[in-house]
Amino acid sequence: MFAIVQIAGKQFKVTPGQSLLVNRLQGEVGDTVVFEDVPLVVDDQTLQSGNTGKKVKASIQYHTLGKKVIAFKMKRRKGFRKKKGFRAALTCIKIEDIS
């Protein structure tokens, strides 16, 4: 059994027991989060698409920062250099149930 769920503007393929990193969610470690935007569910060769009415329950495992991304700009022979770094705020969630 798996489902396609929309979390924070992105779609993920999830199965029960799976852990995944998503954009930072509100809540503390151990909180339960329910995602109601589930456009596709596949259950033992039965496919439901569109407004399925299903929900995906997940628990927050931990909050972290992603890998650093460097934005470097330079114009040759002009002495212009600009360097900025960015780390995305992420949340690790564990999928508990698709119902």
Describe the structure.
- The chain is mostly beta strands.
- It has one domain.
- It has no helices and 10 strands.
- The protein has a 4-stranded antiparallel beta sheet, with no helix packed on it. A 4-stranded antiparallel beta sheet has the order 3-10-7-4, with no helix packed on it. The chain has a two-stranded antiparallel ribbon with strand order 8-9.
- It starts with a strand and ends with a strand.
Overall mean pLDDT stands at 95
Q: Return residue spans where pLDDT drops below 50 for at least 5 consecutive residues.
A: none
Taking strands numbered 1, 2, ... along the chain, how are they ordered across the largest sheet? 2-1-5-6
Whole-number radius of gyration?
19 Å
Find the count of extended strands (DSSP E, 2+ residues): 10
Class by helix and strand content? mainly beta
Distance N terminus to C terminus? Answer: 11 Å
**Molecular shape:** elongated
* Annotation field: number of helices: 0
Beta percentage is: over 45%
Helical percentage: under 10%
Question: What's the structural domain tally?
Answer: 1
Please summarize the sheet with the most strands: 4 strands, antiparallel
Function: This protein binds to 23S rRNA in the presence of protein L20.
Protein name: Large ribosomal subunit protein bL21
GO molecular function, one term: structural constituent of ribosome
Subunit structure: Part of the 50S ribosomal subunit. Contacts protein L20.
Keywords:
99 residues, mainly beta, four-stranded antiparallel sheet, 0% helix, elongated
